[in-house]
Amino acid sequence: MEWERVKLRFAPNLTVSFADRDLALRQIEEIAERGTYPVYVIYGPEGCGKTALFRQVVKVLEALGYSVSMINPLGGEGDERLVISRDLKEFVSGVLSEITGLHTERLIDLAVELLYRVVRLGRSRRIALLADDVFQGIGLGRAEQLVKKLLNMIEYPSIDYERIVVLISSSEGITRSRVGRHRWANIYILWNMGRDGFRELYSQVPDPKPEFDEVWGLCGGNPWVLSQLYISGWRVDEVIHRISEGRRLNDFILRLTRKQLEILKEAVNDPDVLVESLREASGRDEKAEIGELIDKLVELNLIIELWDRSYGYIDQPPPERDPELGIGRYYAWQTPLHKEALKRTINKANQY
Prior knowledge:
48% of the residues lie in helices and 14% in strands. The protein has 2 domains: 7-190, P-loop containing nucleotide triphosphate hydrolases (Rossmann fold); 206-311 and 320-350, no CATH class. It is α/β, with parallel strands linked by helices. Strands 5-4-6-7-3-8-10 form a 7-stranded mixed sheet, with helices on both faces. The chain has a two-stranded antiparallel ribbon with strand order 1-2. It has a two-stranded antiparallel ribbon with strand order 9-11.
């Protein structure tokens, strides 16, 4: 099935059409045919395109007969924080101005109530709730309660629906282990765009711009990095500086133990060094020290844990290994520029 491609704000002065992700859209279509059970959490690098995918999924599910509410607490104005299918628009005309100020949990309640209303009115019996980056909006400590609440919506609804789809996206790596330890959610990874799909997006960025191979090597398929490079006038150092300062990488490096720093110096060239070092650790204390380093890299959204490429991915999985892009078998740097930002910070720290 072909779907209308949504328009997306790529930069303050540039709008693009949703690009690629055809496999992901087919997977969502298959999910819609049966509904979700339990909640599906789609996890991936910051800026890999989760919000864009969800915006497109609204159109896909609507074409399949679903009434859809999508919330984006980190969005700007009301119509960006709450995106809805056409059949729900009559119910929100008077409240859009209030949506901007609503906290995340109240926004979720509103989105759910809209879906319940169309079912009670007999307008629809297929409903979908898409929650984009909500864990950051409510705080990591409440992530588990939210997933359980949405699972209850599937298991014990107060309405008689035919099918339901509940999708949550997250860039917060630390929530993965917390949510994943329960039966409440199935977790899937959305990786950065593949080379061909990324070229499709790159082609919509106006000239002058660097050659595609150079941009690919900097972004690794990450749309956010591409947008930041475009906004900065292709000043790579400026974007790297923002990544470093935003995560306070200098402070992070200065707090590492000697063992942790030695491992990290190797891991910027091969992230699987983290796993190998953990396996080779000789005692409990050393394992704890290395585990602490890995946990901090995940918490800072610098690396992402990967798994068997044959299962658990929305859209194409990353390659088995790609050292140039910072992708290992078990771990990967979120983008090449995240890897480069850390490498530069380590080199600077060594000068003191």
